[in-house]
Amino acid sequence: MMLKLKSYAVPFVFIVLSGAGFVFIKMGLAYSSSMAFLELRYVLAFVVLLLVALIFRVKFPKSLNEIFHISVAGILSVGLFSIGCFNAIEYGLSPALCSLIVSLQPIIISFFAMKFLDESVSLKAWFGLILGLVGVGLVLGLNGEINNNELIGFLFAMLGLFSMSFGNLYQKKYCSNMNLITGGVIQIFASAIVVLPLLYFEDVRVSFNSEFIVALSYMSVVASIGVMSLLYYMIRHGEVSKVSSLFYLLPVASAVIAYFILNKDIELNVFIGIGIVLIAMNLINKKQQVQVVLKK
């Protein structure tokens, strides 16, 4: 009973916390430049996780090869993904539109999983993936034109999409047994190193007020530590294609949370889209639709 409850609770919590992340990025960027916000996020998350590792005396990997793979997975799924999303929203993409682009990940993951992880995806699962995309489009009701800044933001969102997709595949293949605490320390440190030189190219600004501190705390502790730990837990215990299909629910969570935090109205198309997304999730997650046989 407890195992069954956990199988539903973990994905639900992951989606809610991840969807909220796009909203808190928007909130924080009102008071900080994107890379300054991101670097502060990594510094705070690194300190918290390092203290946890030292207090509980969690051992760090001794193999340089293991550290290398953990770092690469982190740079892709933590560093470049966040660089893409933060800049996408900074250039004018709404949290909902950014999450829509990221939610395309199941299609990317399913295609490349067949190449790199020997996953076979059934036609019914493919239909579920495409149906989910249709549902996401209805949730967001995209019907506006994109200006030049939003086009740049779109490209950054695509960077986030592909880096997270490849990062998840890399994580599954090379770091499936990574310790979530010490591995998190390594990945956040590697991501902070990647972001650091980017500060040179922006007009650094930070205004510490209550809203920014809330946004920074959420993105540092809940998003960087909590959400990523849940993601890696699910990758370790499930198929990559099935785990990635959860990203279809990100725009749903973002739309609902934005309603409460940013006072953005929820329209009828949201409820229609949610229904379609749930049907798609059921198709994707049916047993024996997707089987994973990792290369030995």
Structure description:
By secondary structure, the protein is mainly α. The protein has one domain. 75% of the residues lie in helices and 1% in strands. It has twelve helices and two strands, in the order αααααβαααααααβ. Strands 1-2 form a two-stranded antiparallel sheet. The longest helix has 28 residues. It starts with a helix and ends in a 5-residue tail after the last strand.
State the domain count: 1
What is the average per-residue confidence, as pLDDT, rounded to a whole number? 82
Assembly type of the chains comes to: single chain
Structural class: mainly alpha
- SSE order, as H and E? HHHHHEHHHHHHHE
Topology:
Blueprint (H helix, E strand, L loop, with lengths): L1 H28 L4 H22 L8 H27 L4 H8 L2 H12 L3 E2 L1 H18 L7 H27 L5 H16 L14 H28 L2 H6 L4 H12 L6 H18 L4 E2 L5
Antiparallel strand pairs: 1-2
Features:
mainly alpha, single chain, 1% strand, two-stranded antiparallel sheet
Concise structural overview:
It is built from 12 helices and 2 strands, in the order αααααβαααααααβ. By secondary structure, the chain is mostly helical. The chain has one domain.
